[in-house]
Amino acid sequence: MLFHSSAAVCGALVALAVSVTVARSESRGVHANAVVEAASGDAVVGAASMYNPFRPGKEEGGPSTASGERYNPSAWSAAIKTSLRGKFGGVQFGERPKFALVEAVGKKVIVKINDVGPLRPGRVIDFNERTMRHFDPSLERGVIKDVKVSPLSGDDWTPGPVG
């Protein structure tokens, strides 16, 4: 009798584990689709470059971002062109950063828009170092052309690659 009860409990636990694993894998796919749906609409296309105020020779940017956060080269973040500030929810000091879906060279990533800047002509976004390395691992390009940047509504996004 004890053996049958143990087997039944074990079977129930295996079934639960399988259903949780399936649910998690399905939610990842839904998340990717949700990102694309939330990003439809007001996309901006242009060139992207990189900024890091802690690297020698950089003339723009600073250690504090427009949102008040400190620049972090290891985060998934970016600065949007100052003239696009309104399109991306303001990006003001003391306010929560905004989020965007960035698509380029066959890759997609969610970035936190926590800064603005007077970018050079033709550029719409400046990536921090981690984000730029996602699109250009060797950092040899310097500028990535035809980058599509779509604002995401809400503030509950997790920055990083979208699969």
From TrEMBL:
Gene3D superfamilies: RlpA-like domain (2.40.40.10)
Pfam families cross-referenced by the UniProt entry: DPBB_1 (PF03330)
Record domain RlpA-like protein double-psi beta-barrel: where: 45-145
InterPro entries: RlpA-like_DPBB (IPR009009), RlpA-like_sf (IPR036908)
Keyword Lipoprotein tagged: yes
Keywords: Lipoprotein, Signal
Name of the protein described by the UniProt record: Rare lipoprotein A
The organism of origin for this protein: Bradyrhizobium stylosanthis
Residues annotated as signal peptide: 1-17
